[in-house]
TrEMBL record:
Membrane-spanning residues: none
Pfam families, A to Z: PIG-L
UniProt cross-references to InterPro entries, sorted A to Z: GlcNAc_PI_deacetylase-related, LmbE-like_dom_sf
Annotated source species: Psychrobacter pasteurii
Name of this protein: Glucosamine-6-phosphate deaminase-like protein
GO molecular function, one term: hydrolase activity, acting on carbon-nitrogen (but not peptide) bonds, in linear amides
Amino acid sequence: MATITPNKAVKRIDKGNAWRAVITPDANHPIVGNRAIEGNGTSLDSWKNWSGLQTLPSLNIAKSFAAHQRICIFAPHPDDEVLGCGGLLQQLAANGNPIVLIHVTNGTQSHPKSTLYPPENLNVIRPLESMQALKVLGIAQQVTIKALHLTDGNVFNQQESFYKKLVDFIEPNDILLTTFRRDGHPDHEATGKVVTSYAKRHRLYCYQVLIWAWHWAKPADSRIPWHCALRLDLTAEQLQRKSQAITCFKSQITADDSTDNPPVLSAQTIARISQPWEVYLYEPYL
Ligand SMILES: [Zn+2]
């Protein structure tokens, strides 16, 4: 979760997080259109009370992921892998799947103008936070981490070089996991677009996780292809580990005294993502 590219249609706010933007009334967001992340977002209760979530088909790891198959999970920023897939990662590890975690960026732009978290520090801190979180999940030994070093907040403009990097390490039997190509954050959308197009071209299985969509979308929202959605249920123990792992991302969950900015991840955002379910989209005919 990081910075968006400045644009005429987007007015930065000085207080708060850089990725939050105020969209002028006469224009949609230049990249994500009507999926912009604004305000507090949809309440957790709205999602909890939506019966449609309960009736989604279940994602069964043992049936859908052969134990020998390698899973490549793409995180636009170090933390997305746990926020979105902390439960899935635990179940994949238990199923015996080798996992490659790809940090698309190192999330260096999450704290503009901060003396506490300048980009050069975040470049080290955020990948370390991710490694600590994987240890808390109990899966660190099964995960190989790879960094693509694209520019945080600007993945949308680097899609071509991103795609070319995939050729170097994706293998023919890999299963790909990415953020939703319409997740609402420009880096998440660009990551989803690149990875799903690679999967389509090479006929690979590809799943997309909802992260910021929980913020801007509403229950039964027509902007989400719910007919392709699968619900992964977490046990109480898996959810507890995921919640504990999220506390490792200290740079994202604590206020910045040097700028007086609140935490990048609000308590509401964390609560919304810390539920006993994760939702994945499988769009076979992208
Ligand atoms: Zn992110």
